[in-house]
Amino acid sequence: MSKLAADTIRILSADMVQKAQSGHPGLPMGMADCATVLWTKFLRFNPDDPKWPGRDRFVMSGGHGSALLYAVLHLSGYDISLDDLKAFRQWGSKTPGHPEREIPGVETTTGPLGQGIANAVGMAMAARMSAAQWNTKEFNLFGDHHTYCFCGDGDIMEGISHEASSIAGHLGLGQLICFYDNNHITIDGKTDLTFSDDVAMRYRAYHWHVQEIDGHDHHEIEQAIIRAQQESDKPSLIIAKTHIAFGSPNKQDTSAAHGAPLGEEELKLTKQHLGFPEDKSFYIPNEVKKEFQVHVKTVKFVYSQWQTKYDEWKKKAADQYHHYINQARKILPTDLDANIMETLLHKDNSTRAHSGNILQELAKLIPGLIGGSADLAGSDKTTLKGESAISRDNFSGRNIHYGIREFAMGAIMNGIALYGSGFIPFGGTFLVFSDYMRSAIRMAALIKCQVIYVFTHDSIFVGEDGPTHQPIEQIMSLRLIPGLQVIRPADEVETAQAWLAALQYHKGPTALVLTRQKCPNLHQNGNQGNNNFDKGAYVLTESSDQPDLIIVASGSELSISVEVAKRISKEGYAVRVVSIPSFETFIRQDKQYKNTILPPGDTKIVCVEAGRSLGWGDLTNNPNLIIGIDRYGQSAPGQILAEKFGFTENAVYNKIKAWLNGAEV
Questions:
Q1: Is the pLDDT of residue 457 over 80?
Q2: What's the CA gap between 520 and 538, in Å, rounded?
Q3: Which carries the bigger pLDDT value, residue 111 or residue 19?
Q4: pLDDT digits (tens, 9 = 90+) for 524-544
Q5: Cα(264)–Cα(250) distance, rounded to whole angstroms?
């Protein structure tokens, strides 16, 4: 029966790909045995309540094998119909080419290979953190489950698998179980073209529990899962030796089955070889349906037991339950904004220092706010004072040391956010290193994960470290990512508003872009900032509501622009200064609001930012001057660089005056 169920998954997957004339049949056919054993004997879930907190998490890191996941979701009773399987990879279907989070039963959107492993690590960490935060001796409701991950040769080759697996072993994530689909085939051919690692030795060096099995022997698979579940101190890697496109007479063990349909004739031969009717597509034997239904009935009983205990907890620990619900739903304190603004010091300082101070106050009020840094906590000010750090012996801490693993940090944060206990993870590093994280940032935006990036050292004013550490193109390139909220505050008040905006933005990630150097306080005498901060840009100062000149700036360049505006105003010009902490947020505003900030017509507009000038021309059709930097920096003290690259008050003033007088600038 178990073999018939696996063969059914193989044929369903091959049928999906064949009908779509697009997809990857090889992985689903090769891993159907592991999937069958896991989904009919071990996996804990409830198709009627896909977000049940007590469920096991299943991550398909090799997302190109999505047909396998859709097949088991359908057989397990999720809201994935046979018609959905037939609509594989089609417009508006529930069965896109790679698993996407919105689909019932899909835990995460796995795109580029390797990130699913890191997402699974984040989920396993979040499980341990949930258990530490909410479980008691009487009620053990949270984190008492496993996180399973299917990965392949491509995942193992990608560097992020090293970063994520290393930290998983270091933390002893014993409830994390990964299956490695070891079929020795990639798109270009056999893996020995490029890959000869001893993966078992590699993972043992990471302090993982490693087993090697025949990935088509159901008894070996079952015993391997049992042993992995019994290992509580180490994450487990089950290296399953498999055959890609298992059951296909002519394409098994070939790269031809990796990324293309089997073809009509080969599909018929495969069905014949596996004992399925050749003339039927999407055929599911009744006994296979019953096999899956038996397990679903079992896990639904487990679910009902859990739910009974959960209801008892709600009554006996009402206060704790209330806090849990608020955190899980990310409900912020009603007076959060006022409380945070009242704690401000109103002093000149770097925005990274302001951020660090504000973060301490936020953490007191938002228990789900957790995070750390890629080995730069002291520099990017992300350590929560008075809180312990996550370690293999302590998951009740709120500080996370990711080590020098920026990419893994980004993808692990996604896993933590996706887990579902209301954690809002933040992670810090230098802005220039956002390039290392970029794919994870893009995935966070695509999945709509609420994570917060604390990017410090935001410009050439980093100084002596030189051009390798001085971001030039990073700010504007981050603004190109749909759904990513990028905020570059100019002083303490704007930094506080930026953090509050990040906490209130549930539709995706936020990047806070912060300075190393001190910035003047632009909001004097208790000024708590402009109510239009959340619209991305607002008028900071003006000498007339009908300006002759508007200077638009972000971050540290805003204070320079204010001083320049004062000088030019004395010469008879009506000058407005606009703060634009979030360029792309402002671009999305309605025409009426944008026109009140930047009136269309002949009003001259100057844009000032110590980064690429590309993109600023989209802000307005008015006559405009863009003062940016379109080359790499140099090693020198920050003030010297400001002088050499034209970002001092005098330099900006002289450029604007020359432009106003008709000179080429």
A1: yes
A2: 18
A3: 19
A4: 766 677 779 999 999 999 988
A5: 13
Contact 237, 225 (CB under 8 A): no
User: For this structure, is 542 an active site residue?
Assistant: no
Predicted TM-score of the model (pTM):
0.97
CA angle 512, 517, 519 (to 5 degrees): 80
Catalytically annotated residue among 158, 406, 557, 609: 406
- Buried-state track 524-554, b at ≥16 Cβ within 10 A, e below 16: eeeeebbebbebbbbbbbbbeeebbbbbbbb
* Nearest Cα residue to 270 out of 297, 294, 245, 242: 245
Residue indicated by tokens 């609001």: 593
343: its two tokens: 């704690």
Domains in the chain: ranges and CATH: 2-300 (3.40.50.970), 336-519 (3.40.50.970), 533-660 (3.40.50.920)
Residues with Cβ within 8 Å of residue 558, at least 6 apart in sequence? 490, 491, 519, 522, 540, 577, 579
- pLDDT average, residue stretch 314-342: 96
Neighbours of 231 (CB within 10 A): 16
Which of 486, 552, 492, 576 lies closest to 528, judged by CA?
Answer: 492
Summarised one tens digit per residue, pLDDT across range 105-135 is 999 998 899 999 999 999 999 999 999 999 9
Are 533 and 490 a contacting pair, CB within 8 Å?
A: no
